[in-house]
Amino acid sequence: MSTLKMVRNGIASVGIGAAILLAPVVAQAKEVNIRVQAVLGMQTTEVKMLKDFMADVTALTGGEVTFEVLPAGAVVGVKETLDAVDAGLVDGGFAWTHYWSGKHPAAMLFGSPVAGAGVGIDNIAFISWFLNAGGKELYERLWDEMGMNVKGFMLQPVGPEALGWFKEPINSMDDFRKYRFRTPPGLPGQSYKDIGVASVAMGGGDILPALEKGTIDAAEWCCPKPDMDFGFHKVLKHYYLQGLHQVVVNADMYLNKDVYNSLTDHQKKSFEVAANASLIKGMSARIYDNGVALHELTTKHGVILHDTPADYFPAYMNAANALLEKNSAENEFFAEVWQSQKDFAEIAVPFWSGAQTSNAKLGMAYANTLK
Questions:
Q1: Of 305, 289, 317, nearest to 166 (Cα)?
Q2: Quick count: other Cβ atoms within 10 Å of Cβ 270?
Q3: What is the model's pLDDT at position 29?
Q4: Predicted local confidence at residue 44, as pLDDT
Q5: Region for residue 100 given its phi and psi (left: phi exceeds 0; alpha: psi -120 to 50; beta: otherwise)
Q6: Which is it for strands 218-219 and 32-38: parallel, antiparallel or unpaired?
Q7: What is the radius of gyration, based on Cα positions, of the chain?
Q8: Which entry of 34, 285, 323, 329 is 20 to 30 Å from 117 by CA?
Q9: Nearest to 56 by CA among 263, 279, 251
Q10: Beta carbons within 10 angstroms of residue 342's beta carbon
Q11: What value does the mean pLDDT take over residues 321-345?
């Protein structure tokens, strides 16, 4: 007699009460409210996009999972955000993974692989590596390497970021080195120091006050839309789009792993589906939003757009590669992640960069007609 028939016959013989005991246990849906502290203010583009992701999760779970977003500093300081998630002081956090490079150098390779990981990976190619070539599996391991009780969700690809804002035009690296320049933390900022730029790391909300006080006199943050939101054009008028320090940037949401493990399978799947949707929505929104902002900056606010000096590129690339090699030699997991990115680039970058070249030339030809 088959096992199925034996089970059926047993149920028939022992009655309904036993049948209930023998029936498979089905996980019951449960409602959960998740409190997430961001490292930014509530009115930023990034937090608005985070709320869109959360709305998708809530819809996909039929309202079972809801969220509360807390601004930077609501429970702990920005630098303590990940530790607070790990300890369960907040259910989740929202930041850029390279913020945690001090906990593990490989965090930079996920949040901001300096100079496109040295192999020409842009933000679209990065998502290809992440979803199709082993990146996501390595990302899952990152939190264990850090010793963090965290489950991460990559949500918002941002790059390529602009080189930044300056008081006067810069025509060479010698001009660049005259300025105290706000940079990101970790390897991107260190690469600037290694080529003689006075690099100063600080949070986004501190940049404009520092510019106004003269603590720094040049800065980068992101791209035209976020830069305009922060108001840098009120102080500086010379803007350079082409830079290497953050060709790829990714923002993430982190859940305390105990909170994540308490979710039903359907709820967990909803997070995964919404995160994948957020990647494409974020990338596509950035193209248009930055285009709108750049047009406004240059037509309404007196911002002058420049090409980056040619000697910047070899200087920065050489410094970035030296740091990538150094960290790879010093940390086994860093080396594994970087090797994965290089293996991906060997296959994908010749196709992708070659295909992009003709479109970029056509696009620039069109852009030049608008000047």
A1: 305
A2: 21
A3: 55
A4: 86
A5: alpha
A6: unpaired
A7: 24
A8: 285
A9: 279
A10: 16
A11: 97
Q: Is the peptide bond before 160 cis (omega within 30 degrees of 0)?
A: yes
For residue 268, how many other CB atoms are within 10 A of its CB?
15
H/E element holding 365?
helix 332-369
Q: 185 or 349: which carries more pLDDT confidence?
A: 349
State pLDDT tens for residues 205-234.
899 999 999 999 999 999 999 999 999 999
- Token pair in block for residue 128: 């290809």
- The DSSP symbol for 42 reads T
Q: What are phi and psi of 319, to 5 degrees?
A: -65, -40
Q: Any idea which residue has 């620039």 for tokens? A: 364
- Is the pTM value of this prediction over 0.70? yes
The three-class DSSP label of residue 239 is: strand
185 vs 199: CA distance, rounded Å: 9
CA distances (Å), origin 37, targets 100, 156, 165, 274, 296: 15, 16, 29, 19, 31
Structure-token match 């970058």, residue found: 349
Q: How confident is the model at residue 114 (pLDDT cuts 50, 70, 90)?
A: very high
Task: Give 147's contacts (C-beta < 8 A, 6+ positions apart).
Answer: none
Closest by Cα among 146, 158, 75 to 111: 158
Question: Is residue 97 within 8 Å of 53, Cβ to Cβ?
Answer: no
pLDDT at 141: 97
Asked whether the beta carbons of 218 and 180 are under 8 A apart, the reply is: yes
Q: Estimate the crossing angle of helix 332-369 against helix 312-330, to 10 degrees.
A: 160
More confident residue, 22 or 226: 226
Confidence of residue 359 (pLDDT cuts 50, 70, 90): confident
User: In 3D, which of 177, 191, 198 has the Cα closest to residue 314?
Assistant: 191
CA–CA distances in Å: residue 176 to residues 161, 180, 313, 314, 318:
17, 9, 13, 14, 17
What is the full DSSP assignment across 294-352?
A: HHHHHHHS--EEEPPPTTHHHHHHHHHHHHHHHHHHH-HHHHHHHHHHHHHHHHHHHHH
